[in-house]
Design goal:
The chain has about 100 residues and is mainly alpha-helical. It is built from 4 helices and no strands.
């Protein structure tokens, strides 16, 4: 089974489909799943903490805690000016525009 997969990857340009699937999974995780989970974890105990325990700290520490809590999620693939997406876009475009190999008889 694994041998057939690797042969498919080499002969039939299966690497293009795998490349597109990997990029799609990375984008879904980075733009959909991670923001939802970070928002869900943030909302659970934050309000209780702010109401009950924030007054106990020094004002400078309170400010730092509020800055950390209010920070929004920044996708990892957009850090570095989105070079990750440019690279994957170049790979996908190049593979889509390349002509398939034809076997000579």
């Amino acid at each position: 089974m694994l041998k057939r997969f690797f042969l498919w990857m080499q002969r039939d340009d299966g690497w293009k489909a795998v490349l597109a699937a990997v990029y799609a999974v990375i984008c879904v995780v980075d733009f959909v799943i991670m923001p939802m989970t970070s928002g869900a974890f943030k909302a659970q105990g934050v309000k209780d903490f702010i109401v009950n325990h924030l007054r106990e700290y020094d004002p400078a520490v309170q400010l730092q805690i509020l800055q950390i809590i209010s920070r929004e999620y920044l996708p990892f693939t957009l850090q570095g000016s989105g070079v990750f997406h440019l690279a994957f876009g170049a790979l996908l475009t190049g593979s889509a525009l390349s002509k398939p190999k034809t076997e000579e008889k």
